[in-house]
Design goal:
The chain is α/β, with parallel strands linked by helices and 325 residues long. It has 15 helices and eleven strands. Helix 3 crosses helix 8 and helix 4 runs parallel beside helix 8. The chain is elongated.
Length: 325
Amino acid sequence: MADLQVNPDLSIARDVLATEAAALSALGESLGAAFLAAVEQLAGISGRVVVTGMGKSGHVARKIAATLASTGTPALFVHPAEASHGDLGMIIAGDGIIALSNSGEAMELAAIVAHASRIGLPLIAITAAAQSTLSLAASVALILPPAPEAGPIGLAPTTSTTMQMALGDALALVLLARRGFSAHDFRDIHPGGKLGARLKRVRDLMHRGDELPLVQPGTTMDQALITMTAKRFGALGVVDGGRRLLGVVTDGDLRRAMGPDLLSRPVESIMNPHPRTIAPEALAEEALREMNSQSRPVTALFVVDTTGMAQGILHIHDLLRAGLA
């Protein structure tokens, strides 16, 4: 461990992270009226947010555009060098522009800046130079606080691009909150991958109809166990004639009730009358959290509507198959 503490590679890496962390802290402290003005202008547009930048700032701009779009603010990236060769046609009345340039003097941005002025678009500059060409042309300039680039030579864009990206994230998530963009909205535009699985609704994954292990009160445990074993969920629902869930029997309940008279007892004497359930519109992520409750983990949840009617059942294996757990 002592050798690791003095390892030169780790020393450089830790210094890089400390330098960037300090810059982000300074950036947070610097936010004020200009940031609020930028939010107001971006929230007020009827079109899309066009994000642009050259070089490393361009790579950051692509990411900011993607983050905006994925959090409910329509956005796209326009390459500044392509803008003067026809891509200015992608920027129209009603749009707003975020332009990134650490120096504020990237000549490739000139066509977009002029176009924004010509058709009256809000232009938000993200730059470290308050008196730069870009800053002075912008409707709002977000000035990055002074901070050294990280690393032994202090020249490669590191701290500056980290601050640009973080500031883009801040804008995107403030706009998300302004729009009332919810987890359900997020799910609708992220249907793929593990993230999509976590945001599926319970009704998309649950078993229903004849698949449900259901019996009515008065059923003796010998018959109830046949149903419970055949359906293979490790749980049994007890419902009234209107299919309202009255209670649940689990493998754990059976172990606790084990005795010579178990098979002749009515199912309602074994069931838990206050089982944990989940709503069909709940997110699969919520179901997983409920199943993994520290107090008493379970492997299956009955799905009930607002009237207590049994609509389905969800097993941990369903979440595994969906790529969630």
